């Protein structure tokens, strides 16, 4: 009979979620990770980006007041152009009229008068080109025709000018120096399509604004994989049971199983720590400040890819479960058996894929 004194402090009771029946095969591919705690700070990213200025384009419709002011400013020159144009058109029209009368006496001379009668009466009597020297009937008639042509051209010019200015927009580029995060958010809300804020520091390492903290399965932090528990189980394994009436069953409590579990947890911890460290020293490159929604979307996608690549690299442990089944007998029967996790360095890819060796 042996008296075994143990000094175990059960300070890490398993949580309720960990008390569920979970096989090693299910939690091993996940690296014993129950959840990831991530803290992504957009404000820290903005501070590291440190935009010196923000430029945006402000678009305004040209107002009717501006159109009227523009018309009044060019009215003098427009009058000279329209008067010259009207005189030229009347001169051509009179030439064509005389040519038509000389070649065809049957043409109705009153045709043009009938056409002009559709205009308003006061326009017919209007004469903007009165002259004291030219007061004959033919002169007055020509002056009235010139006035009508002038008014038509003037009205058409005004209509075109109003239509053009009403459809035109005025674009102004405005620059905001040293914008704060509050200012940037306000500008992005108002001018998201044209806002550009160049980053003073385009390459920012992830550890400046991201914190990753994985929560492992509590079996990896419990006393079941401690040296004291493994030593105690080793002593129990060496005790011969003489009294067969004792209702004691140590099946599944071989110390080598716990030693194996401890080695797997160490390998998982080391793999996760190395992967997180390598991830955080990578750089996030942006030429311009990106919006908070785009920032979160990119980081979430990147983090999902990181977790997936980490799981893929750790698939060796999943294969190890099958390998352990094949080598179960020599491993269990050897008292000096040990699972040695080794992390070799690859100078080419700068990555450290995990490797596992059985030592007998």
Automatic annotation (TrEMBL):
Domain of life: Eukaryota
Alphabetic keyword roster: Membrane, Transmembrane, Transmembrane helix
The organism of origin for this protein: Adineta steineri
Transmembrane annotation, as ranges: 65-93, 149-169
Stated name of the protein: Uncharacterized protein
Organismal lineage: Eukaryota, Metazoa, Spiralia, Gnathifera, Rotifera
